């Protein structure tokens, strides 16, 4: 597994990272034993970046990771943690809190659940409009001085916010959705990151399974985010699955799977971009790792982008009400 420096000032990260959110709900039930086995398999394969959020499963995901990494050499993995999202006992979303006092509280609980003495990359999950980004980054930099955090990242923020944050403290990466059917960052956000020497950890590279080549319309279960995702709704999903079939023809010609082509495309967009793979099972992880063996020429990249043109997806990547709260969409 190759490793690259994350941004100008960040740690060495594996070409692929493992996103653990789906192991704690969001996409229907998951198996705890299989989830832990998948984390172990990822570490054995050389993946060193584990991504989570303190609100994934309302703490469940951090405790799951804490169980999985128990006994693993601390230098063999990096923990990327998002914070700030608020939820009620029923799991409903209540907004965001990035006040300095709240940040200190959040990190204390994360350290306890994960069972570690420091977090490698800490980031606000979304921009809290009630707290200046300068105050948020300043609070995290204080935690770096205290030894609890190593690096600061951002998530789903726009170019202006990135610049303001970077003026306060070095930012190692921006975590943001990026895939063949979610390419909005190419206009302003990605150029800004590259100008400032900030890496990108790309989530949603398979668009929540939509462009994995495996997803079928009867796959959605209760409590699955895809029941409200615009791209999975009747009228949109049929058009989006047509794009998948166009990608499948390219994949078959390359002797690869649809998922492998989609992952390889993101990885080929730059060594400063690390795709985060949301595998919940070892077989899906194995398939994703196969993307590392897929070599895409310029002609291949052009063919892929002809098959799935920019802005070809039907429906937004989040429901409209959620998009209005994304600084990256402004």
UniProtKB/TrEMBL annotation:
Q: Does the keyword Isomerase apply?
A: no
Transmembrane intervals: none
Kindly give the InterPro entries that the UniProt entry links to this protein: Aldo-Keto_reductase (IPR050791), NAD(P)_OxRdtase_dom_sf (IPR036812), NADP_OxRdtase_dom (IPR023210)
Matching SUPFAM superfamilies: NAD(P)-linked oxidoreductase (SSF51430)
Q: Name any one Pfam family assigned in the record.
A: Aldo_ket_red
Does the keyword Transport belong to this entry?
Answer: no
Provide the NADP-dependent oxidoreductase domain boundaries. Answer: 16-307
- Which Gene Ontology CC terms are recorded? cytoplasm
Keywords associated with the record? Oxidoreductase
Q: What is this protein called?
A: Aldo/keto reductase
Q: Which organism is it from?
A: Rhizobium tropici
């Amino acid at each position: 597994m190759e490793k690259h420096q994350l941004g100008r000032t960040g740690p060495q990260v594996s070409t692929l990272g493992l996103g653990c959110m789906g192991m704690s709900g969001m996409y229907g039930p998951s198996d705890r034993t299989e989830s832990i086995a998948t984390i172990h398999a990822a570490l054995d394969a050389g993946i060193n970046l584990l991504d989570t959020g303190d609100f994934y499963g309302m703490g469940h995901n951090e405790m799951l990771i804490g169980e999985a990494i128990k006994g693993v050499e601390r230098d063999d993995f990096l923990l990327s943690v998002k914070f700030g999202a608020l939820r009620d006992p029923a799991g409903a979303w209540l907004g965001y809190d990035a006040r300095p006092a709240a940040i200190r509280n959040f990190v204390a609980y994360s350290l306890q659940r994960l069972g570690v003495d420091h977090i490698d990359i800490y980031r606000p999950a979304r921009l809290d409009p009630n707290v200046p980004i300068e105050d948020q980054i300043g609070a995290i930099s204080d935690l770096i001085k205290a030894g609890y955090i190593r690096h600061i990242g951002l998530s789903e923020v726009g170019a202006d916010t990135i610049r303001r944050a970077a003026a306060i403290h070095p930012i190692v990466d921006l975590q943001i959705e990026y895939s063949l059917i979610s390419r909005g960052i190419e206009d302003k956000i990605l150029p800004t990151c590259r100008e400032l020497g900030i890496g990108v950890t790309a989530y949603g590279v398979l668009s929540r399974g939509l462009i994995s080549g495996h997803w079928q319309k009867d796959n959605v279960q209760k409590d699955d985010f895809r029941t409200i995702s615009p791209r999975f709704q009747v009228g949109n999903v049929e058009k989006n699955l047509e794009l998948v079939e166009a990608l499948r023809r390219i994949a078959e010609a390359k002797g690869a799977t649809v998922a492998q082509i989609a992952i390889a495309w993101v990885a080929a967009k730059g060594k400063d971009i690390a795709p985060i793979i949301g595998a919940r099972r070892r077989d899906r992880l194995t398939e994703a790792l196969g993307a590392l063996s897929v070599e895409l020429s310029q002609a291949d990249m052009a063919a892929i982008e002809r098959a799935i043109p920019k802005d070809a997806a039907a429906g937004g990547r989040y429901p409209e009400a959620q998009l209005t709260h994304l600084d990256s969409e402004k």
